[in-house]
Queue: 2 jobs
Job 1
Amino acid sequence: QVGGFAWENCGDKTDPVVLQSLSVAPDPISIPGSLRVSAAVSSGKTMASPLKAVLVVEKALGDLWIQLPCIDQLGSCTYNDVCTILDNLIPPGTTCPEPLLTYGIPCHCPFKAGSYSLPASDFVLPDVELPAWMTNGNYRVRVAASSGGQELGCVKLAFSLQSQ
């Protein structure tokens, strides 16, 4: 499927973290603009520090998929400790931002085992200065999360971006 939003789990059947549903609108995603997201995730295991995330980001150039490098923490990056990044973005002890707060979704490690669900919620995508290689086009992203060398979950996303 070229263009159009799609997702799938790419982890082992034994991975404790599974994305159960995800929907995103509009399609293509518009920057700046409003993004409506709904999602459900289940975790059979508490996710604690150090929580590692490995991203592989590809962009379509004609019929080819080109892997984008990691530049300024954007692109195909490895984040060795997501917990610390979250603590820097949202100081521990402060309340989680909406709509996470309303739906009881945590924004800090450890993330307890259980099911988390986000009903359709709107997020504002600001007019950020994205590098030229991150603008209009079709993208594929693979995110794998692990802790202590053990894979927790893996998700593949496909989406289109349209910047104004």
Job 2
Amino acid sequence: MYCLQWLLPVLLIPKPLNPALWFSHSMFMGFYLLSFLLERKPCTICALVFLAALFLICYSCWGNCFLYHCTGSHLPESAHDPSIVGT
């Protein structure tokens, strides 16, 4: 389970608030995971645990799934505040 210490923090990286950056973020995360799986070759148990966690997060639409944006989830109220743009 040593390899999970490199995979689980990926699930904690927040999705950007700006919708224009969602595609770039999902591409970066996808390429990171692909390169990690090809280079480090994690054990089968670690890969299955990570994929199960990723599936549960994306299936529940908690808003932190980097693969796509759930249609039912809303942005936080602070995302519409123009005073915080550029901070």
